[in-house]
Amino acid sequence: MISTNLLERYNVQLKHYAKEQAIFNELDTPKYYYQIKSGNVKMYNLTEDGKEFVQGFFENGNSFGEPPLFGDFKYPAAATSLTDSAIYVLPKKDFLELLKQHPEVHLSITQLLCKRMVYKAKIMKEVSIHPPEHRILTLLNHFKSASKTNESTYEVSLTRQQISDLTGLRVETVIRAVKRLEKIGKLSIVDRKINL
Fold first, then answer.
1. Engineered SS bond to 177: which of 4, 129, 132, 135, CB 3.0-4.6 Å?
2. Which of 139, 27, 36 is nearest to 83 (CA)?
3. How do beta strands 193-195 and 52-59 pair?
4. Tell me: the pLDDT tens digits for 64-80?
5. Which domains does the chain have, with CATH numbers?
């Protein structure tokens, strides 16, 4: 995340998006760097039959949609606000200038993009060859390790619908698979929340 003080030195604007408002669409030309001050955003693709495949969920402090700013290609996915959201919007040329003048920020953005690439590689492998239980455990363990929690138990903040969207499984399949995983002791359900 880029500090607010630094963003404000580079022509940033704070824009407000209503719940379910499009931020950008798939195949739009990238013009801005986006960083969430408050709210939640999802990036997703629509399949030919109209089902959403979620690329990621983003929340306070997260940035999203950066790769096309570097690669000079169109957005490969759409972004929509899940809640009323306040998002810092920095024009592409100002974002690139900021990175040139602050190499430590450039390095942190590069590290973030690498982590996202690893996540995408794991999920693509899961979606293509593994059964639902394995896909779900891989996803949940990824979020647990990304949270860097020291707690012995990790409460998953994703809903069954979000797990479905992130794994490409139907919600009903997620519910059955989670029950099977609970039965064999791979996770537990406490107050309707999944715990690892």
1. 132
2. 36
3. unpaired
4. 999 999 988 999 999 99
5. 4-117 (2.60.120.10), 130-195 (1.10.10.10)
